[in-house]
Amino acid sequence: MPQEFIVSPSNGKTADKVGLDPAIGRKLAAGIESGLLRDLHVVLAARRQEVFIEHYATGSDENWGSPLGHVTFDAGTLHDLRSVTKSIVNLLYGIALDKGVVPPPDASLFAQFPEYADVARSKITIENALTMTLGMEWDENRPYTDPENSEIAMENAPDRYRFILERPIIAEAGTRWIYSGGSVALVGAIIERGSGKSLPDFAREALFAPLGITEFHWSAGRDGVASAASGLRLTAPDLLKIGMLLLQKGSWNGRSVVSEDWIKASFTPATSTGDGLSYGRLWFIGDAPAPAFSNPRPWYAGFGNGGQRLWLMPDAEIAAVIYSGNYNAWDAWITPTRVWREIVLANFRQA
C-alpha cells in the first residue's frame, strides 16, 4: 500500500524562518513518491526548537519483533526505537552519575557484579561497556530472527548477565569496537542496582518527567528485565525533545537534567567502528556537509534496527527523528541517511 502523508501546512513558513528551504516538505514527498525513500513512518525535525518538517505515514510496524499490522502514525503513536534505546541509556547513566548512585566510568565493570566472581576480568571497566570496547565475543551481525544472534541468545538465556560476562575474550579491553547489546544490558543493570529502581521507573523519574514525557513503553524479556539494548518505545515528538535537550547542553526550561560534561564526554570519539564512523559513549559520531557551512560539521546519532534514527548537528542547532519499518533488512540505513543528508542538511541555507 502506498504511504500516505499528513503534512503540516506551517512547515514551509517555519522552515524559511529558521533558515531552511521552504520547499523541504515537498522535496521529501517527492523522494517518497519516486521510490527513492522507502518504508518511512515518521520524519520530524526542528531547528532552534521550532519544528520545520513533520511528516507522518501509514505502514506495517512491529513492537520488538511482534507484528502490529498496518498503523497510521501521528504525533501520539509510540514507535520502537530499537537500538536508539542504547543512546537513551547513556543519558540515564549520566543522570545517575550526577546523582551519585553509580560508579564513574573508570570503575571496574566486574566489581559491580560480585556474584559472578568466577568469570571476573579485572582490567575491564564500565567505560569499556559504554564504548562497546569490552573485547568480549559478541555477534549481532546475524538477523535478529536468528536465535544465534547474541542479543537474542542473551534474552533466551536462563541468566542474561552470566551469559554476557562469560563471553570469551577476543581482544584487549579498549582496543576494538564490537557492537554489543550485552554491554548496554550491563550498563542498565548498574543503573538499576545503584538507583534501586527498574530502568523504566528511573527513566520516568529522572529523564521523562522533567521533559514532560508521559507516554512510553519499555519491552522486557521473559525474565521481566527491561531491554536496555533495544526495548524503548516513544512518540516522535518525545524523542525529538530528548534531541533538543542534548542541543541545549542538558538543560530543559532552565533546569539541568543531565550534565553538560557528561554530554561532552559522550560525544567525544572513543573508538572507530571500522566503517568510517567513530563511537563515543553509546553514540555514533560522524560528519556531513551542509550548504550553510564551508566545511562538514560533526553529527551525533542513535541508530536503531529498521531505520530508526535520532540525528543531531549541534553546529546547525538541528535535531531530527526518523522512524521506519524496514526491520532486519541490510539496507535499512539507506533511507534515513538520505533523508538526513539530502533532505534536512542539503536544504539548510543559513547558519
TrEMBL record:
Coiled coil: none annotated. Residues 71-324 form the Beta-lactamase-related domain. Keywords: Hydrolase. GO terms for molecular function: hydrolase activity. This is Serine hydrolase. It comes from Rhizobium changzhiense.
